[in-house]
Amino acid sequence: MGFMDKVKGLMGQHGDKVQQGLDKAAQMADSKTKGKYTNQIKSGTQKAKDAAGKLADDGKKDDGQDGKGSGPTS
């Protein structure tokens, strides 16, 4: 298993936490720059979220999960 396979697997499991972390980082950056770069921060954050989401989807596919609730139910 290569490095990217591990990253994809982790993103498949924890993608929601990564998305939350990106939001927090964006808020902090916007706060520190006093809103001067809001549009650039939003754009960069969205691109990072898109990339993270793609890795998460790939990780779910590699694990045999399709993200449609095919696992066991509680």
Automatic annotation (TrEMBL):
InterPro entries: Antitoxin_Rv0909/MT0933 (IPR028037)
Skewed-composition ranges (Polar residues): 36-46
UniProt region (Disordered), positions on chain: 1-74
Pfam families linked to this entry: MT0933_antitox
Start-end of Basic and acidic residues biased regions: 47-66
Protein name: Kanamycin biosynthetic protein
Annotated organism of origin: Streptomyces albiaxialis
